[in-house]
Design brief:
The protein contains twelve helices and twelve strands. By secondary structure, it is α/β, with parallel strands linked by helices. The protein has two domains: about 130 residues, Aspartate Aminotransferase, domain 1; about 220 residues, Aspartate Aminotransferase, domain 2. The structure holds 4'-deoxy-4'-aminopyridoxal-5'-phosphate. 4'-deoxy-4'-aminopyridoxal-5'-phosphate binds next to helix 3. This is Histidinol-phosphate aminotransferase.
Length: about 350
Amino acid sequence: MAPITPQPGIMEIALYQGGQSHVEGVSDVLKLSSNENPFGPSPKAKQAIAEAVAEVHRYPNTDHAPLRAAIGEVHGLDPERIICGVGSDEVLQFLCQAYAGPGDEVVHTEHGFAMYPILAHAVGATPVVARERERVTDVDALLAACTERTKLVFIANPNNPTGTMIGGNEIARLADGLPEGAILVLDGAYAEFVEGYDGGVSLVDARDNVFMTRTFSKLYGLGGLRIGWGYGPKEIIDVLSRIRQPFNLSEIQMAAAIAAVRDRDYAEFCRAENTRMRAWLARELAALGVPSDTSLANFVLARFADVAEAEAVDMHLKSRGVIVRRVASYGLPNCLRITVGDEAGCQRVVDGIRSFQEARR
Ligand code: PMP
C-alpha cells in the first residue's frame, strides 16, 4: 500500500508554543506571557456578547457588513476594502493560501512572529529569513532576501517579540523595492498602542502592493474571541474573500468587536495605561540592570546576561506564579518577553526579578 503522506512543507512546521497559563501547585497566577490586555475588554463588548448569545441557533451574517462598517467608521476606511478573520492569524493565512504555494518564497524578519513560517510551510511555500539590525527590522536585509519567487513579505510594526518599530519612510522604501508581484504585509497587531500611528493606511492607499492587518486581541482585550481584520487594495480583498469561509465569524464575535471598536474612551484608557506602565516597567528593569529595547507595543523584551540567567529568572518568576514568555524559539534565548500588566502586575514582576537578584547575592 502507498504510504499516506501530508502535503510538502507540513512536516517542516515547528508546533506553535502558546503562552502558558498555569503553574503546577501555584494558585495565584499572573499571566504576562501572551500580550493580553490586563483590563479585559470594554464592558460594552461584554454586554454585546451576552446579548448575542440569545441568537446562537441562527447562522451568522456572512459578509460582516456591520462589523466592517464600524471599523471603517472609526478608522476612516472604505468598508469594501476590509476583510475580517478568526484573529488576524486567519487573515495572514488567507494571504498565504491565495498568493503563495510550492516554489514560492515568503520573507519575514529574523525575530518575526512565529506564525509567518508556519503559514508559509502550510501552503508548501518556503519561508526566507531576513536578518535584523540589533533587533530592529532592516529594510536592506529584507530587500536583499527577496527574489523573483518572493510572493509575500511580512513585517510586524511594532514587531513581536522585540517591540521595536521602523518609520513610514523605511516602509515605503521597502514597498517600492519589492520584486514585481510581491505583496508587503504590514502586521499591525500592536499598531493601536502607538499614539498617532495609523498602521500604514496611507501607504496601503498609495500602493497596490501593500496590505495591512489588525486585531481585536491586544488593545481591545478580545484575544479569547478571535477577531482580526485586514485592509488593502480592492483587488486583494476580492481574492481573499473568495477563500474565506462564509461563516468564519460568529455573531458573538462580531457583536463584541463592534461594541469594542466603538468604545473609544475605553480603548484610549487602555492605550494610555499601557504607555504609562510600559515606561515604568522599562525604567524599573533598567534600575535593576536589565536592559530592554524601546518598545512601542504592550510588552517589553528584557535582556539578561546570558541564556542561563534568562532561564533562571523565568523559573524564579514561575515559582512565584508570574508567567512571562521565553523567546528562545525566536532566536532570543537570553531574553524574556514581559507583557505590560496593570500597576499591581508590573510591580509583581519587578519584585520577582529583584528577589531573584537578592537571592543570588
Ligand atoms: N501578529 C503578531 C505580530 C502577533 O503578535 C499576533 C498575536 N500573537 C498576531 C499577529 C495574531 O493575533 P490574532 O490572531 O490574535 O489576531
